Fold this sequence. Notes:
The protein is mainly alpha-helical. The protein has ten helices and two strands; from the N terminus they run H-H-H-H-H-H-H-H-E-E-H-H. It has a two-stranded antiparallel ribbon with strand order 1-2. Helix 9 (about 140-170) crosses helix 10. The longest helix has about 35 residues, at about 140-170. The chain is globular. The relative contact order is 0.18.
Amino acid sequence: MDSAALLSRHLDAFAGSSPEIVDGLSSEQLAWRPQNQANSIGWLVWHQSRVHDDHIADVAGLDQVWMRDGWYDRFGLDLPPRDIGYGHRPDSVVKVRVTAERLVGYDAAVAAQTERFVAQLEPGDLDRVVDETWTPAVTLGVRLVSVISDCLQHLGQAGYVRGLGQAICARDSAGCAVRRWRYWCELARVATPEAGGSMTPAALMD
């Protein structure tokens, strides 16, 4: 297996992770954060898709799927069109209110564009310099590995947050985790300082 084929296999592997992470989650559950400075499942999955889309489009000389195929309009977020979530503070994180269906659809569209691009690469293409602002300069191969690493980390974080939410519910009642989590998310939403309340989600865990 050559290097390009190996990278393609790894890209395919993480591209299939999003559906499992968000499966069965409501918008409220996707927006839940363990505490006020944390990121939500929805934000983490959206952010990794945006990084993937932005970075691959740049090195491939293509338009981002986000804007070209209308995903920006479909999501309807109160954020600039080219925002990928880099450097977001909590007040920006809470703006990413999404549905599982849209997250999965966008991620799949980005993965499809990447697959087409990587499929036509020759081994020598991976040595092409794509970014000279770093020392040493970044090659295409290094950039692809960076995208894989970044996306896998964020997907792992999203999976952890999902597990944390489920564990909170299971602690109360193992037999009604989904119902309890929906209730807990709604309680957290109205009780947080952003909503004018005095409690934090972390306080509700006690």
